[in-house]
Hints:
The structure holds two protein chains of two kinds.
Chain A: H1 3-14, E1 31-32, E2 50-53, E3 60-62, H2 63-74, H3 80-99, E4 104-105, H4 106-117, H5 122-132, E5 139-142, H6 148-189, H7 196-202, H8 213-223, H9 231-246, E6 264-265, H10 268-296, H11 302-310, H12 319-322, E7 328-333, H13 339-350, E8 355-361, H14 378-389, E9 393-398, H15 406-414, E10 419-424, H16 436-445, E11 452-454, H17 462-465, E12 466-467, E13 480-486, E14 492-498, H18 501-506, E15 515-518, E16 527-529, H19 530-535, E17 545-551, E18 557-562, H20 564-583, H21 589-614, E19 648-649, H22 659-663, E20 668-670, E21 676-678, H23 686-695, E22 701-702, H24 714-721
Parallel strand pairs in A: 6-7, 7-8, 8-10, 9-10, 16-17
Antiparallel strand pairs in A: 1-17, 2-3, 2-5, 4-5, 9-11, 11-12, 13-14, 15-18, 17-18, 19-22, 20-21
Helix pairs in contact in A: 2-3, 3-4, 3-5, 4-5, 6-9, 6-10, 6-15, 7-8, 9-10, 23-24
Chain B: H1 5-13, H2 35-48, E1 56-60, E2 75-78, H3 84-94, E3 99-105, H4 106-112, H5 114-123, E4 127-133, E5 136-137, E6 143-144, H6 168-173, E7 180-185, H7 189-201, E8 206-211, H8 223-227, E9 232-236, H9 245-250, E10 254-256, H10 262-269, E11 275-282, H11 289-292, H12 301-313
Parallel strand pairs in B: 1-2, 1-3, 3-4, 4-8, 7-8, 9-10, 9-11
Antiparallel strand pairs in B: 5-6, 7-11
The complex binds thiamine diphosphate (TPP), iron/sulfur cluster (2 copies) and magnesium ion.
Magnesium ion (MG) binds at residues 63, 105-107, 134, 136-138, 145 of chain B.
Amino acid sequence: MDADLQAHIAFYLTGKRHSPNLLAIDGLKLQPALFAGYRDLTRLRYDFPLVLVKEGPAAVEPLSGLIDAILDKVARGDDGERIRKHVLRLEQEIRTRVAKGTSGTFSTLWDAAAPALAKDNKLMAESLSRARANLKVDGDVIDCDASLPYHLLGHAWAITQTQRAKKFAKDINRLVQKLSDIIKADFVNSDAGKSAENLRASFGNGPMDSFDFAAMSRILVKASAKKKPAKSRQKRVQNLLAVLQSQRFFPTSSATAEAPYSFAFDSCNDALKAYRERLPKAIELARAIAMAELEVRGEYSEVKHDALFESFGQNGLDEAELALLPDYLVRINATSLSGAEQSKLNEILAIDLPIKVVVQTDDVIEESPVGHLAFALRSRQLASMAMGINDVFVLQSPAASLYQLREQIQRGLDYTGPALFSVFSGATKTSGGLPPYLIGAAALESRVFPAFTFDPSAGRDWASRFCLATNPQAEEDWPLREFAYEDEKNQAVAQQLPFTLIDFVACDTRYSKHFSLIPRTHWNDTLVPVETALAQPGRGSLDSVPCLTMVDGEDRLQKVIVDEKLIREARRCRSMWNSLQELGGIHNSHAEKLLASERLRWEEKLAAASASAAKPAAEPVASVAAPVAAAEAAPVEPEAERSPDEAYIETARCSTCNECVQFNNKMFAYDGNQQAYIADVNAGTYAQLVEAAENCQVSIIHPGKPRNPNEPGLEELIKRAELFA
Amino acid sequence: MKSSATDCLLDLYDEQHELEDYQSGVPRWCTGCGDNAILTAVQRLCRDEALRPEKTVFVSGIGCSSRFPHYMKTYGFHGIHGRAFPVAEGVKMARPDLTVFVNTGDGDCCSIGAAHWIHAIRYNMNLTVFLHDNRIYGLTKKQASPTSPIGTKSNTTPRGSYLDALNPLSVTLGVANASFVAQAVDWIPESLFEIVKAAYHHKGMSFVRVLQRCPEWLPNSFEPWMQDPDRIQLLHHENSLQLSAGLSKVYKNQLQHDPLDMNRAREIASSEDVIPVGILYQNRDIPRYEETRQTGVLRTTETIRKGFDAELDKYTV
Ligand SMILES: Cc1ncc(C[n+]2csc(CCOP(=O)(O)OP(=O)(O)O)c2C)c(N)n1
Ligand code: SF4
Ligand code: SF4
Ligand SMILES: [Mg+2]
């Protein structure tokens, strides 16, 4: 075996460098080849920074989107191109400032950046001031940094709660007013309300000497209903008002009310404790709202409703009742998920509380405490555990993709049960100064931290609930990207490169010992791409080593070999991704097995059919199509069997004209629908029956045969009755 | 929104009503008068839909038919001749939570009240309107009305009326914002009830012309149609009414008609030989005036007083 290969394989198996031709990569500033185009993010127009919109239809907008909206309005006409150029220049300036850590709102950042840019440039100043006049949507500008998950989800949550508060305030104001009206009306109807004194007061302070309020009072007292309003109702209404006006779940305009509760927490324990403490108050409020609705509609009945409301909330509150109240928000860092806090989190998720939990992770490849490489993937476990509970809304994503997932975030916030947002910030300390956006995107790309949502409200099956769509090329094990470069002979080369866990780990300084740079003079065919090694099930024959293409600080291509531990980790990562794919309906193994067996069966059938077709007098395979079933006839209502002798009315056709029932109200009567039937055929004569039939304008009375053979004039009556047989 | 367990329990306890709960007094209509059939259909509707009597209002003008509110044990307003619509509109505007019905006669609606009728259609407020069309002034003892067929002999037209009758269906269909136009006859109770029900469920002004017999003054007016079921044409459609087997058996003349087809509706409205029965036109997307003008502002005593004061202050000297 060649000496180089020997040394490479030794490194591959042991991670030890036994040759001067294997170089450590520390300090070389190597990056995965695919990063080459992203060295300076501030020169790119992409989703970040974002603006957390104060008021507007969307809670969050990319800076570039807001700039585009402004350009749509101002960059028109002859100088449109010039304005566009200037405003985009400003956008870049704001992006750079924000990336360097400047904070502020869109408008303050604009106002700080614009003068410097336009100092000696009148035209630029003019462009920017025209555009500035159209800055209508404002809010804090925030980059993809360590604080993004906290602020973005906090902001979206707060907006959701504000909308809820608005609706709540509207409902409560209405109920309070109507309940107060009830009390007022009771007073106006009371003796005190009708007293001369009160009547005088209610007329204002004009000259009223010529008006006798005492007389008016006497008349009113005499004329109005004597019934006193029920004491129990008055008390109930007062109590309801007291509960509605003293509630602390939402801000009120009432000056006397105590400060509203806070619903945002930094620990699961605190949130859970607050929830428990406030539960009796929440039940009291929900109960008061339900009772007040009945009361103001005048539908509250003590007999029926007292007992019902007595036991209200004994089993807690249900979804619809909880949806009236604010949701809780907990924002924590994964590092604080110690034993106690973890168990509180489990409790929140498991017992279906209206609490939204944001768990932020800053490191997704932390070293396992046991020493060997097994990336702990703590936060990934968190999301799968939560999905296992089945009733929890789960969203997992790197911060870099949160804007793309804004609609899903909103669905999670609107979801009536608990929600878990597990977010990787990308702000890993050991990532060699690469921006968190890039690290986050790389975590997504490499399947180290896939993005997905699990929405229990979307349906009952996985297909409706689980979505992997945010991941690039979700149907592949690893996404493939085109990488273009120039070789030594200055020829353009384009290559499809996968982006794997190994590329991701290569950015992290903690793991540099698992990589070795191979000097260009020692490159040869035994250096095979990492994906070739990953494609093998195990170690395989040791005649080559996996090698990663990277670029250095001067954008020169470099080859770096990798040790076996990383290859194993990458396989593990892939297999986790494959499981997620199955949940997401991609390469579902059950479906694929079924498909294969169906295909086999179909092919066998086909083969059998063609074999028999070859025989000369084969039976026809399928019989001639069955005759088309006769169109289904309209259902005919079964008609009651009636003897021609019986007297009856076609009640359903009776038009309630009163004719027959007034003629003989013993013989004819109305049923529950106020339509006539023969109530008692013996309550009158046959002559009356025949006459009623003749008078019935819709001719639906059938006299049948006479019952009393001795009734006079029968012969003629029977003849007349024949018309109505 | 999902309803809570409490809501479900409350529904469970909801009151059941009987027909008697909506009946009030003994109608003073002549025996055989078609108004009785309309009353029964409406009382059945109230019972089946469990309308709360204290949340239901019948508004009428003047005429035999306009006595209708007296016979309903609900709120009612027996108004002035021709002015049922403005009163009903006022009620609905101030109290959109109430269910408001209008009962009006052919004289009340198409003669003295015609202007209000036209505008009520255009406003399209959520009212259920029954035009009791007996083609005569009944209460005042037989004068020709706008819907009396040409040649009708009456106290005002002893030699027979000279003008062609006005067609209330065509008129209604010709006004902007017409959203529900139907025709029923008092002597087919099943279809009358179905039409009344559809009208009630329509959000907007549902206009139902009911051909109503007046045995007192025009005893044979509808005789030819009553005698020959083929001269009744039942309208049906998957988006409209469906016919029961029982009805289909008696009334074989049936027409499939899409209630959104306005042109066809106008043709059907003008048929003379047959009486079309069913929904001629229904458009659920036409806005309701009371909703369009809804401000969402609570009507508190203070806002009302402020409004009054502002209005009266205009006249201080
Ligand atoms: C302002 C006014 N004009 C005239 C009358 C007289 N009047 C009472 S009822 C009526 C006509 C009623 O006819 P219709 O509306 O068709 O009701 P019907 O009695 O036929 O049901 C007339 C003209 C009146 N009451 N008020
Ligand atoms: S006469 Fe005929 S239509 Fe009138 S109530 Fe009697 S059965 Fe009904
Ligand atoms: S006069 Fe005619 S409309 Fe009036 S109650 Fe009598 S039958 Fe009915
Ligand atoms: Mg009339």
